[in-house]
From TrEMBL:
Spans through the membrane: none
Residues of the Response regulatory domain: 20-135, 143-260
Phosphoprotein is among the record's keywords: yes
SUPFAM superfamilies: CheY-like
Protein name as annotated: Response regulator
Domain of life (superkingdom): Bacteria
Record-listed 4-aspartylphosphate modification sites: D193
Keyword set, alphabetical order: Phosphoprotein, Transcription, Transcription regulation
Source organism of the structure: Rhizobium terricola
Alphabetical list of PANTHER family matching this protein: RESPONSE REGULATORY DOMAIN-CONTAINING PROTEIN, STRESS RESPONSE REGULATOR PROTEIN 1
Single Gene Ontology BP annotation: phosphorelay signal transduction system
Length: 273
């Protein structure tokens, strides 16, 4: 049965009994809470690793790949972050679950290309963790198109979205974006730059809206301009959201999630024929 999470995300009721999730955490309270919630929501029996040695054994003594790791920064036997380094070096997608957080910690975590980080400092921590896990397990259902004439910008946004397990296509021009959209009806989100040489972000949005409404596809505009009126103009031509560069990872991911959550809820509310 579908229901809303604490952030407004809609759970579909889908379960993942064949998914392998490792929890690297030495707190009995949190391991119990996480195990219980993952079982209740997703029918997943997580593997608990209370020490660095447990974590290494869980990975090395099994031929079954790890779908996702949930890890504290420090574990017994790895008091200086070695457990997280171990997971990242093995390219195991990892959500960090930590009670330790400063700006410097955040920078180090994001530099490691982790999937997400969740803070243990509130009563909703395990629920937020569950939402992060659910998003990672289901984001492949969403196809996102990045439109930007800058190769660097395209690569940056694409890598961010792929880290979160989205399917991503890219276009270096408005004309190419329209071609890709015509060939891929499953694209649910377009992230487009404003300033492009052939068709700017405004005109691209107008043309997209001529074929697909907000109930079918969401559009986020981005720009490095200092002109604050761009957001108003973009929304008036059919955009759903707008961000000024430079933006931080968490803000970008939150905006993407909010727009896709809205799309999912609109589609779920439509009466079935």
């Amino acid at each position: 049965m579908a229901f809303l999470g604490v952030s407004g995300m809609q759970y579909s009721g889908e379960t993942f009994p064949d998914v392998r999730i490792i929890v690297a955490e030495d707190s009995n309270v949190f391991t119990s809470m996480i195990s219980t919630r993952m079982k209740e929501l997703f029918k997943i029996d997580v593997e608990i690793c209370r020490t660095f040695e447990d974590l290494q054994a869980a990975n090395e003594l099994s031929d079954e790949p790890v779908t996702l790791a949930i890890s504290n920064i420090n574990l017994p036997g790895a008091e200086n972050g070695e457990a997280l380094e171990y997971l990242v070096d093995l390219n195991i997608p990892t959500v960090v679950f930590t009670g330790t957080f400063q700006d410097e910690t955040r920078e180090k975590l994001l530099a490691k290309d982790i999937v997400d980080y969740i803070l243990k400092d509130n009563i909703f921590a395990v629920e937020m963790l569950a939402e992060s896990v659910y998003r990672f397990l289901t984001n492949h259902q969403h196809h996102v198109l990045i439109v930007d004439d800058s190769p660097t910008a395209r690569a940056l946004l694409s890598s961010r979205l792929k880290r979160y397990n989205f399917r991503v296509s890219t276009a270096d021009s408005g004309a190419k974006a329209l071609e890709i959209l015509k060939a891929n009806a499953d694209i649910g989100l377009v992230v487009t730059d404003y300033n492009m040489p052939d068709i700017d972000g405004f005109e691209l949005t107008r043309r997209i809206r001529g074929a697909r409404g907000s109930h079918e596809l969401r559009i986020i505009g981005v720009s490095s301009s200092t002109n604050r009126l761009l957001s108003a103009r973009f929304l008036k031509v059919g955009g759903n959201d707008f961000m000024l560069r430079p933006f931080i990872d968490e803000e970008f991911y939150c905006r993407v999630n909010q727009n896709l959550d809205t799309l999912v809820q609109i589609k779920a509310a439509k009466p079935r024929k």
